[in-house]
């Protein structure tokens, strides 16, 4: 989860290591890629769960793209499970 600190700096905190990959997609741009085939073959997809991801992002990629888009700095923090 990305959080903004009192010092105006951002951090990305998860319980997984930096090598973990997260399945992500952009809802506005990518939803149709998954909905269209489901509608065309509704007999196969009716009542089924559709898991959608357009790519797997590493922590480095997430933080790099965040900085590129927002111009804000961000750091990764691995937290311990409670």
Query: Tally of extended strands?
Result: 5
Q: Termini separation (Å)?
A: 16 Å
Summed up, the domain count is 1
Question: How would you spell out the order of helices and strands?
Answer: EEEHHEHE
Spatially, the strands of the biggest sheet line up as 1-2-5
Q: Could you tell me the radius of gyration in angstroms?
A: 17 Å
Low-confidence stretches: none
Instruction: Give the integer mean of the pLDDT values.
Output: 92
Proportion of residues in extended strands: 25-35%
How would you sum up the global shape?
A: elongated
Helix amount? 25-40%
Q: How would you characterize the largest beta sheet?
A: 3 strands, mixed
Name the structural class: alpha+beta
Helix count equals: 3
Could you describe the 3D structure shown?
The longest helix is centred in the middle third of the chain and has 14 residues. Helix content is 37%, strand content 26%. The protein has 82 residues and is α+β, with helices and mostly antiparallel strands. It has one domain. A three-stranded mixed beta sheet has the order 1-2-5, with helices on one face. The chain has a two-stranded antiparallel sheet with strand order 3-4. The chain is elongated and about 50 Å long. This is NmrA-like domain-containing protein. InterPro entries: NAD(P)-bd_dom_sf (IPR036291), NmrA-like (IPR008030).
Helix and strand layout, with pairings?
Blueprint: E1 2-4, E2 10-14, E3 21-24, H1 27-40, H2 42-45, E4 55-58, H3 59-70, E5 74-78
Parallel strand pairs: 2-5
Antiparallel strand pairs: 1-2, 3-4
